[in-house]
Amino acid sequence: MISVLIADDEQPAIDELAFLLRQDPRIGVIHVAASGSEAIRLLTREPVDAAFLDIHMPGLNGFDLARALQRFEQSPALVFVTADEEGALEAFDLAAVDYLLKPVRAERLQRSVGRIVEAMKSTSAAEPAPPRQPEMIAVTLGGTTRMIRRDDVRYVQAQGDYARLHTEEASYLVRVPMADLERQWADAGFVRIHRSYLIALGHVSRVRLGGDHASVTVGGAELPVSRRLLPGLRERLESTTLRVRP
């Protein structure tokens, strides 16, 4: 069971997040604090596994609180919960496990709890080592720069000298040629299936390699597989746990 802290100066936001967290069987004790200073006083008495921090709190804001918590002997996993995207860069500089936008969706929160579980497993390994931080990518959407995790990218679509990264929530255009991403991300489970598509094998839900029109389904999108790249895809699939269905 994961013990957590919610720090937010708005009581309705605390109540809503606490309600959603209680629906997850992995969550145990939930502590709440209405300010950064109150959170620190509480955590000196009751250490927690994870802290859900609002950024815009009076006095000690969420980033200040996160820096203070990192100095604790038992430092909790950090998840920032905020109404805007501007703090994403600073959040991941602080090694945040996740960055949630209000209003928080239940399924999105479950993914955050999963990432907390992963971080806890890493720190409790027989030979302690710092958790491997996910590869982060700077993207721009609506004039705002934010960070996304590479393992959230389901597939990449070539668009001239640019590449469009497709995630569950949105797509982002980055000025990186597809050939560069294919080379750099090969070890992360990405494979080229078409001159226009690079896919993450971990997000593949269906494979059709028989017939005249081979395809894979990734995140609800059915993508074509070119004949030239079909042998390479078969080879990669055979080395994974995916079962190829003709």
Automatic annotation (TrEMBL):
At the top level, the lineage of the source is Bacteria
A Pfam family annotated for this chain is Response_reg
Spell out where the chain crosses the membrane.
Answer: none
Among SUPFAM superfamilies, the record links this protein to: CheY-like (SSF52172)
4-aspartylphosphate PTM sites in chain numbering = D54
Molecular function per GO: DNA binding; phosphorelay response regulator activity
The residue ranges of the Response regulatory domain are 3-117
Give every HTH LytTR-type domain span.
137-239
Keyword annotations: DNA-binding, Phosphoprotein
- In Swiss-Prot or TrEMBL terms, this protein is called LytTR family DNA-binding domain-containing protein
Name its species: Agromyces sp. G08B096
